[in-house]
Structure formats: structure tokens, C-alpha cells
# Entry
Amino acid sequence: MQQTVNTVPADGQRHTNAAVFSSAALSAGTHTIVITKLSGTYTTLDGFGIVN
# Structure
């Protein structure tokens, strides 16, 4: 499942603990996450959450 997400909030402010993607459709097993920065000066990533 490939998806492009926009991480720039509508209010232009930086936010913490903001989910940018979630899926209830992933099957159990191994998955690969690829992150590609398409624009901007910087990016930050503070973590992943996995719920079984």
C-alpha cells in the first residue's frame, strides 16, 4: 500500500504526537516503511507506533 501524506498542518504550526498515517488493513507479518522527503528544508520523525 503506497500513500503520499502531507505533514504540513493547515495552521502552519509545528505539532507533536500527530499521526500522519494509520491502517487497519495491514495483515500480520513483516512490512517495510519507506520515507521520502519530497520538499522543504528539513523533516523530523519521532517514532512509530505498532498495535497488534
